[in-house]
Write a structure and sequence with these properties.
Length: 605
């Protein structure tokens, strides 16, 4: 009992000595923001904790501060926090949302919180959980009862993490965004009001804002009274005038000023003109407009978190693994020429002398690693689920990875095979022989299936890779695998075996051991393994230019996808995922049959 009393007394003493965080009021004035009643200009840099190794959060925030920012904007990804229904993770790796916000405060930075539930962000399914798509009747981003029931759970769970971190409670959070660019998608203002109500009911009492393009219809559909107007982007008088027409009482700011841009597979690296950026930011600073740089630091789409774009039902543009974004702070945390240009501009117009730039995070080369063909996915097929028609990945509680579909050809044995629809990349095999690939983009989903008279009922196998759920606009109902049916000369093929291959790091490690008898398809699903030893650790980029298309795993961590079509050939690996001493790298390649060495280099390009 005496020990308990003593402990209690000590705790009370520390509590009394600890300085209470000062509470603040962030509010709206006439056409401007106010902090404790005084005009306040947001100079914000955006970064996403889920895209940055937790060990580097403080470094990246310090980099933004050294560039002259006073605020950090952060998207929060619902599907990163609730990967399975009802199970939230706010603790492991980079899931600690509250921890990220607290570091911002420790570094003297304010926070704009962008929690969705939909965020876009070139992130898989725009941040929405793909398990929503298991329900065939799901309707997203509206007042659909099933959707809103799950949204309510998410808002309740996240609010518990951040309510104490609002500026009104002594924290750094100044504003919370409602949805994201809703005027580009729908017009259900009752849905937007319902979201605001849910946040209020869960203790969020700081101001809200919406964010939309600077066009009349987007602002009309996406903005609700009583919130600030964010413009994606706002870079001239006309943009701000358009927002004032939509709501003359709301403060307006550029919620996404773009220093860089995203890159899809098959494209060249996006490198927007620096002169245009300088002109836009100089306008914002000269006119004391608040703004947020999207993004000041992009980070990485580790694993299967990269999203995709599509603006027609036959178009598909998956994003690369890197989210470098040609941003002022590159993927590995180094300042770029844009960084120094923006730093000089902010210093010029604010009159505040910048603090010292943090030391760079070390990066290293890794000598060539010998890789060996160790296994194949064909050796590791689980028990199939049998169905009349192919099942999507979501129907089998799988997010992405691979799905194998198998059936026997009865009736037609050869001819025009059409997959409706392949989401997103398929390899077709007949009697275990590779026939062709089918890529979702451009709608050419038919291959010629040759005759094989040696077998009465030939075996058809279709191996499908999901490459990222669409994250923007009207084609977001994007289930993976074969989404409808397969036909041969117009005949619908029935009676399928569905083999689920999630390809997460744990699954790959469990199924990468050597097999005495290696089941092979040429090409198709080979597992290569290599071992290497390090006497020191630092960041590196693994060079996958010797491989064709697949995924790479280091010590169980999924670094993401690579593809020979480019532009990305080097995949970022943070130091924290490496070991002093023994390390393991596993490559699963869909198209390559021969092992090739892999080395670590120091740059993305």
């Amino acid at each position: 009992m005496k020990i308990r009393v003593l402990l209690f007394s000590v705790l009370m003493l520390f509590s009394a000595l600890a300085p209470a965080q000062q509470k603040h009021v962030f509010s709206f004035g006439q056409g401007q923001f106010l902090l404790d009643g005084k005009p306040f200009q947001l100079i914000s840099g955006e970064m996403h904790p889920a895209r940055i190794p937790k060990a580097y959060w403080r470094h990246r925030i310090q980099m933004a501060k050294a560039m002259g920012c006073n605020t950090i904007a952060a998207y929060i990804f619902w599907n990163y926090l609730e990967t399975t229904p009802g199970h939230f993770d706010f603790n492991s790796e980079s899931h600690d949302v509250a921890g990220f916000i607290k570091i911002c405060q420790e570094e003297g930075m304010w926070v704009l919180l962008r929690p969705g539930p939909y965020v876009c962000a070139e992130w898989d399914f725009g941040g929405l959980p793909t398990w929503l798509l298991k329900n065939p009747d799901t309707r997203i981003r509206c007042n659909d009862p099933f959707y809103m029931k799950e949204v309510s759970k998410y808002i309740s769970a996240l609010s518990k993490q951040v309510v104490s971190l609002q500026c009104t409670n002594g924290g750094p959070v100044l504003m919370v965004q409602i949805e994201n660019e809703y005027g580009s998608y729908g017009n259900d203002k009752q849905y937007l009001e319902a979201l605001r109500k849910l946040w209020l009911q869960n203790g969020i009492n700081v101001p809200f804002y919406t964010a939309d393009g600077a066009t009349p219809y987007m602002l009309d559909a996406g903005h609700i009274p009583g919130t600030a107007i964010g413009l994606d982007s706002g870079g001239n008088d006309g943009d701000f005038a358009q927002a004032n027409k939509a709501d003359s009482t709301a403060p307006v700011f550029s919620s996404e000023t773009y220093p860089g841009w995203l890159t899809h597979w098959f494209e060249k690296w996006a490198k927007p003109d620096t002169a245009d950026l300088r002109k836009e930011v100089e306008y914002l600073l000269q006119n004391k407009r608040s703004f947020n740089l999207y993004v000041i630091h992009g980070g990485t789409n580790f694993g299967f978190t990269a999203g995709a774009n599509a603006f027609s039902n036959t178009q598909y543009q998956p994003d690369i693994t890197s989210y470098d974004y040609d941003s002022p702070i590159d993927e590995q945390g180094r300042p770029t020429p844009k960084y120094f240009m923006l730093r000089d501009l902010i210093t010029k117009y604010t009159g505040k002398q910048p603090i010292a730039i943090p030391a760079p995070v070390p990066v290293m080369e890794v000598s060539a690693i010998e890789m060996k063909l160790n296994n194949s996915i064909w050796n590791n097929l689980p028990a199939p689920v049998v169905s009349a028609q192919p099942l999507t990945m979501e129907a089998l509680d799988q997010n992405q990875g691979l799905m194998l579909y198998r059936t026997r050809l009865i009736g037609h044995k050869s001819g025009k095979l059409t997959i409706r629809e392949p989401h997103d990349y398929a390899l077709v095999f007949l009697n275990h022989k590779f026939i062709d690939t089918v890529y979702r983009d451009k709608g050419n989903w038919t291959v010629d299936l040759p005759a094989d008279p040696s077998v009465k009922d030939p075996v058809l196998e279709i191996l499908v890779e999901g490459m990222g759920h669409i994250n923007f606009a009207q084609f977001m109902y994007d289930r993976k695998g074969i989404t409808e049916r397969v036909t041969l000369n117009g005949m619908t093929l029935m009676n399928w075996e569905n083999y689920s291959l999630p390809m997460d790091g744990k699954w790959v490690q469990q199924h990468s051991g050597p097999m005495r008898s290696l089941v092979q398809r040429v090409p198709g699903g080979y597992i290569f393994k290599g071992a290497f030893s390090l006497d020191k650790i630092a960041d590196t980029y693994f060079d996958l230019s010797g491989y064709v298309k697949g995924m790479v795993y280091v010590n169980g961590h999924n670094l993401g996808r690579y593809w020979q079509v480019g532009p990305q050939q080097h995949l970022y690996c943070p130091a924290g995922w490496l070991n002093k001493g023994n390390n393991e790298i596993i490559i699963v390649d869909l198209l390559q049959a021969d092992a090739a060495p892999v080395k670590g280099v120091t740059t993305l390009e």
